[in-house]
Specification:
The structure is a homodimer. Chain A contains nine helices and 15 strands. By secondary structure, chain A is α/β, with parallel strands linked by helices. In chain A, the strands form three sheets. In chain A, strands 1, 2, 3, 4, 5 and 11 form a six-stranded mixed β-sheet that branches. In chain A, strands 8-7-9-6-10 form a five-stranded mixed β-sheet. Chain A has a four-stranded antiparallel β-sheet with strand order 13-14-12-15, with helices on both faces. The longest helix of chain A is centred in the C-terminal third of the chain and has 12 residues.
Chain lengths: ~270, ~270
């Protein structure tokens, strides 16, 4: 049986790598152009699960994905952390010195700014909507002066050589992905929970809400504010905590939040991917 | 004497409107293409002040601007809240029914999605890098079938008619701008302070940091996390509080934070614009 998984991007994209890492190599990817399309594919049943990037260690939260998590009531069943290693990819016989044109997604190009300026100073840069698609094009063109920036997996997938690796400027470049499904599976072994807090309107409300976790010795790993739509300058808070939903400390924290008139939406409870 | 003010966008853009509202109508705008260019113009002395959008009530924080505030050590001297009203602009004699092509910034087009689908269903949409530039083009083309989406001020500036107003889907559409300068002016009448908190690494650190303000009855109006670059999955927190820097309660909160080993960067202290 093959699991169908909606991902943003094509085969051998970082989303595909993350999905395979979590769900296994036999998955069938359902390639989507945008994050909204990826959520829609799960919603319409075109895929059984979805894997979406939610945060990058350099660029921060992907706000669009946070907003889509609120809109669709899916369930986070897991998370994957991926080191983003960028490579220069070309056909056999190509070398960095020969490259006159380099193709990739604008973010990947930006991530390799230093390498491009120092080593590929003479190469012209071209934007592509997808790192994996750029690799496919370089393969098809079969020209040693054209290169793509992408993953090692894209090199394997399209039969290209890795001409240079770890060419990203900041090596501490990680992306966190979440795995989404439609069923609210609560794994008893879960040690992490993601939730949205909507506080009553009073001074110190956020402080007291965070106190519900602090009093139970539950560590916060992430706090992301987003606007409350329809009420200018009011916010909701996306929180990740190091505790499973079924743990007594977590249940105590939720009881405390309820007593504070703080609305809680559980987005999922799962095993930490770190 | 004219104050030169770096803004993103052209004359009659929302940045220009915000700058005039805060600094007066005699300012000389220094038009910049990007937020980074706007900060650079202030840095290089091409402008004495800068006005940059920092947050929208629907789209949330503009992360790029938060990161630029950390990079450049400028001082926030004020804030401006602007209701974003979008209008359909055309030449004299044009009507919404006649419009076959509509031009604007992609965000402005997205903000008017409902109007475009319902009333301008037959019109083709074209993206422009600037609402104000789109208005200038519509003026130059002098063709009643072409319209722009932009501000009332753009209509005045370029001699266009407002064919329809308040065409944005969500009326609660406000943008907050900050005014930046190089001198650390501390206004004794200031009642708001923006700062960055970098906490020591321990569970409950954010809760205790927010406690420093809660204990002094200082209200938080905004909390925005951003990644700490170079240390994956660690964060810094941008905080806005309802207290001037020189107020005793604020000084007590800062002393408390220092005792907690929490690093504080003051970004500015100013009078609330609301």
């Amino acid at each position: 049986m093959f699991t169908t998984v909606a991902i943003q991007g094509q085969e051998a994209s970082f989303h595909h790598i993350a999905a395979r890492q979590f769900l296994g190599k036999s998955i069938t990817p359902v390639s989507c152009d945008t994050f909204a399309d990826t959520f829609d594919a799960l919603h319409k049943g075109q895929a059984q699960q979805a894997v979406v990037a939610i945060e990058n260690s350099l660029f921060g939260s992907i706000n669009e994905v946070y907003d889509l998590l609120l809109k669709h009531k899916f369930w986070i069943t897991g998370e994957v952390y991926l080191r983003i290693e960028q490579c220069l990819l070309g056909i056999q016989g190509a070398t960095p010195e020969k490259v006159g044109e380099v193709y990739s997604h604008p973010i990947a190009l930006a991530q390799c700014e230093q390498y491009l300026e120092e080593t590929l100073a003479r190469a012209k840069r071209f934007e592509h909507h997808d790192t994996s698609g750029a690799a496919a094009d370089v393969r098809a063109w079969n020209n040693p002066t054209k290169a793509a920036i992408g993953s090692r997996q894209a090199a394997e997938r399209f039969g290209l050589e890795v001409l240079a690796h770890e060419i990203e400027t900041h090596k501490q470049n990680y992306t966190r992905f979440v795995v989404l499904g439609k069923d609210q599976q609560v794994n008893p072994a879960a040690n992490k929970t993601s939730l949205i807090l909507t506080m009553a309107e009073r001074p110190g409300a956020l402080y007291h809400a965070l106190g519900a976790f602090a009093k139970q010795q539950i560590n916060l790993t992430k706090l992301q504010s987003r606007p409350l739509i329809g009420k200018a300058w009011h916010y909701i808070f996306y929180v990740d905590v190091d505790a499973g939903l079924q743990q007594p400390a977590m249940q105590a924290a939720l009881t405390d939040l309820k007593a504070q008139d703080c609305k809680v939406n559980i987005l999922g409870s799962y095993t930490s991917g770190r």
